[in-house]
Amino acid sequence: MSRTVKAMAGAAERRPSLVDDAYAAMKEAIRESTFAPGYQASEQEIALRLGMSRTPVHEASIRLQEEGLVRIVPKRGILICALAPDDLREIYEVIIAIEAAAAELVAGLPEAERSAVAGELAEATARMDEAHAAGRLQDWGKADEAFHRILVERCGNRRIERIIQTVKDQSHRARMLTLKLRRQLPASVAEHRAIVDAIRRGDAAAAYAAARQHRSHARDELLPLLADFGLKHL
User: Fold this and answer.
1) What does the alpha-carbon distance between residue 136 and residue 78 come to, in Å, rounded to a whole number?
2) Contact 67, 166 (CB under 8 A)
3) What is the pLDDT of residue 103?
4) Mean pLDDT over all residues of the chain?
5) Does pLDDT of 181 surpass 90?
6) Contact, 223 vs 171, CB < 8 A?
7) Which fold has domain 3-80?
8) Which residue in 69, 85, 27 sits closest to 167, CA to CA?
9) First CA to last CA across the chain, in angstroms?
10) What average pLDDT does this structure show over 162-190?
């Protein structure tokens, strides 16, 4: 193989990794509001902030635009998309439907498999409880996110996993922004335990109902908070 061909092959191998790195870094900055809603900058400026080159940032932004997290504005750069309360209402409608279906599927798994999943979910719930007791709200949020990620990842339906990832990324900012304002965190832990219990028993109908009720309660608490504080975009 010639030196030129080897160089091209090496570049081809490295390129996906650089794009994946840029995608992960940009998504994390958006989720945690390091790149705040409404922030707009050139690809070069974003690349400099992330310590990366412009080309992988450009390709990563195309993927993020498909997920509704950014908008590429010709000749003006990349705009971080803001969410309105109505957007969140629609997002939660999707989450409610999909996670209820995921819980139903997990509860229908063979006993050994669903028992293993229930154990993972119970562990995440225990971390939530401990974090809340210690006043570590960020850790509570991470454990809560882990619970819902496990529920979807273990349900055995890859399309459900792909669909929900986008809306979860879009709703993450709102959840973290309002975490200190929410009053129902202990209730959320209890609701998680109800989901786990239904899965352990293999009661698909109860798991579906418990998961649907849990996410409905989260929506009904979050949206009024946004209205009370006059947050029209986030």
Assistant:
1) 34
2) yes
3) 98
4) 86
5) no
6) no
7) Arc Repressor Mutant, subunit A (1.10.10)
8) 69
9) 53
10) 76
Strand stretches in the chain, DSSP E = 40-41, 70-73, 77-80
Reading the block at residue 1, the tokens are: 């193989």
Could you tell me the sign of the dihedral formed by the alpha carbons of 131, 137, 143, 144, in that order?
positive
Give me 227's structure tokens: 């209205």
Q: Which residues on neighbouring strands pair with residue 128, listed in sequence order?
A: none
* Amino acid 234: pLDDT: 59
Please, are residues 152 and 102 in contact by the beta-carbon 8 Å criterion? yes
Whole-structure pTM over 0.70, yes or no? yes
Topology of the domain covering 85-228: Four Helix Bundle (Hemerythrin (Met), subunit A) (1.20.120)
Say which range, 16-20, 83-87, 113-117, has the weakest mean pLDDT.
Answer: 83-87
Tell me whether the CATH fold assigned to 3-80 matches the one assigned to 85-228.
no
For the chain, domain boundaries: 3-80, 85-228
Name the more confident of 72 and 185: 72
98 to 60, 135, 153, 159, 182: CA distances (angstroms)? 27, 30, 12, 10, 23
Cβ neighbours, 10 Å, residue 90: 14
pLDDT greater than 80 at residue 195: yes
Q: What are phi and psi of 202, to 5 degrees?
A: 75, 25
Q: Is 22 exposed, middle or buried (0-12, 13-18, 19+ CB in 10 A)?
A: buried
The mean pLDDT value for 141-151 works out to 93
